[in-house]
Amino acid sequence: MKEVFLGLDMGGTQIKLGLVDREGNLMETEMFPAKSDLTIQDRLDELVSDIDLKIANYKLLGIGIAFPGIVDNQKNKIVSKYVKYTDAHKADLNSWAGSHWNVPVTLENDARAALIGEWQYGSGKGSNNIVMVTLGTGMGSAVLIEGKLLRGRNFLAGNLGGHMSINFEGDECNCGNVGCVETAASTWALPKNLRKIENYEKSELSKMSSFEYKDIFELASKGDIAAEKLKSKSLEAWSSGIINLLHAYDPELLIIGGGIMKSKNEIIPFFEKRINERSWLPKDSIRIETANQTKYAGILGVCYLSKI
């Protein structure tokens, strides 16, 4: 019977499930609705029957969980009160896995899990000093130094790239800080930033009930002035945040992920230019790659962590 690890990537709208063997091969995958209106314990209990079906022909060695919040990987506890599963900090993951399958759990923040997935199986192979950022809804980040995840005493280290303040006189962020990268460059901040633009009512964006970065880049390419201004503001904010991360951690490789990287031919050259212009790094010394394992990096990452 094939031995596998089970990975769960707990997104805000969907939960990705995957079975990964010892060699890092993805054997089975499935996606489920997050149902984040439930308690996380209830949702996990609902998944038991689905998991049982998936592992019926395998020997389960362990479960890895990637979660979008601050986590204590030593105690397998979710530390932050996540906006979706507000009770997540109360979840007893060890008991859940132990009572149903008698296997250990590995818990990690989703950005760190994705970084491990890229390091072992994607764009980060062969590099041991990596900063990874994910752009879009916000700006997530994770850091690998000398082949080890950076976590810190309170499990925050390298993980809050989007909440570095780049403007102490800026807008208040949803985290309580002021002038964070995400106040200038995130999906949630786009409507507010649109309304700050003169004559924004003339933009196609003002006629849309909601919009994302793919709409921003598409309309900017068609000459929509407001979309172009939002794109420029976001690129500048991301660049500032990335340069701060590069100064702090001095990696050899910068990996950039997120659905927005469909516009990588615009984004990467912009970042390269700003890094060369404004950072202390030697010219062209940082290698920039797009994420390779875009869909299942988190699952591959927590399953890798489960076996070491």
Automatic annotation (TrEMBL):
Gene3D superfamilies on file: 3.30.420.40
Superkingdom per UniProt: Bacteria
UniProt cross-references to Pfam families, sorted A to Z: ROK
Sections of the chain in a coiled coil: none
InterPro entries linked: ATPase_NBD (IPR043129), ROK (IPR000600)
PANTHER family for the chain: BIFUNCTIONAL UDP-N-ACETYLGLUCOSAMINE 2-EPIMERASE_N-ACETYLMANNOSAMINE KINASE, ROK (REPRESSOR, ORF, KINASE) FAMILY
Family, per entry: Belongs to the ROK (NagC/XylR) family.
Designated name of the protein: ROK family protein
Organism lineage: Bacteria, Pseudomonadati, Bacteroidota, Flavobacteriia, Flavobacteriales
